[in-house]
Known about the structure:
InterPro entries: CHP03086 (IPR017520), DinB/YfiT-like (IPR034660), Maleyloyr_isom (IPR017517), MDMPI_metal-binding (IPR024344). This is Mycothiol-dependent maleylpyruvate isomerase metal-binding domain-containing protein. It is a single chain. The protein starts with a helix and ends in a 9-residue tail after the last helix. The mean pLDDT is about 95. By secondary structure, the protein is mainly α. The protein has six helices and two strands; from the N terminus they run H-H-H-E-E-H-H-H. It has a single domain, classed as Four Helix Bundle (Hemerythrin (Met), subunit A) (Up-down Bundle).
Amino acid sequence: MILNEAHEALRTVVRNVPADGWELRTPCAEWNVTQVLQHAAGDQIGYAAFITGGPMPSENPFAPSGTLSEAAEVVAEQAMKASADAWATVSPDAQEVPVPVPPNTMTYTLGIGACALDAAVHAWDIAMATGQPSPLTPAMARELLDIAKQHIEPLRAYGVYAAEVAGEDGDDDVAVLLRYLGRDPRWTA
């Protein structure tokens, strides 16, 4: 399942951030590695909250403080568990699942895909910032691109995603996804 793959990508890169890597700049120009993790965790908690009616993130995912209240791995695991547990309560046939992104309801398939997309792309951001290999596989990228094309455009108006970056000859599936999401697949720290 795409959400499990995305969570594993995020889990792996968080686990492998070096001790001195949390302040490094990221492809999200305004945020360092800690802030990207806070944003990613907050988004996962947001999905869980919308589905279950439980608590929203303790801080605004779009204005991360840069200070973690617990160890990074704990922050990531708690957020991913909340998200996975919430999605486990939703029928795969559901046509209207409450989600924290406009239009605030999606089908199960689109909603869980959007949640996975968020975790996977931020795993990539953290990996690139800390010199790790990309956690995105070509198969994951193809599946996430299909999801992205169904819901990203309206979110660009809110600044959630940057404008699409023009493609280049030779782009692989991962590069195509990243460019669609407004990222330069050749970004380095």
